[in-house]
Amino acid sequence: MCRAHGLRKAGATIAADEGATAHELMAMYGWTRLAMAEVYTKEADKKRLAKAASERLANRM
Q1: How far apart are alpha carbons 41 and 47 in whole angstroms?
Q2: What does the alpha-carbon distance between residue 21 and residue 13 come to, in Å, rounded to a whole number?
Q3: Is 0.90 topped by the overall pTM?
């Protein structure tokens, strides 16, 4: 069963993973607090940083 919150969360996660900024997410979802958008962008940034680091490590070996 899909609920509105779950769909919004999935959309925000996908958008952040694709490079949307916190302010873009705020505009897309009507959020007024930067902290809400940063929940998604910080997680996406962690994923990108981990991938980049692991790729550098793999290229070194």
Answers
A1: 10
A2: 11
A3: no
* pLDDT tens readout for residues 7-42: 999 999 999 999 999 999 999 999 999 999 999 999
3-state secondary structure the chain: CCCHHHHHHHHHHHHHHCCCCHHHHHHHHCCCCHHHHHHHHHHHHHHHHHHHHHHHHHHHC
For tokens 């609920």, what's the residue? 3
Domain ranges of the chain: 4-60
Distances (CA, A) of 15 to 12, 21, 43: 5, 9, 12
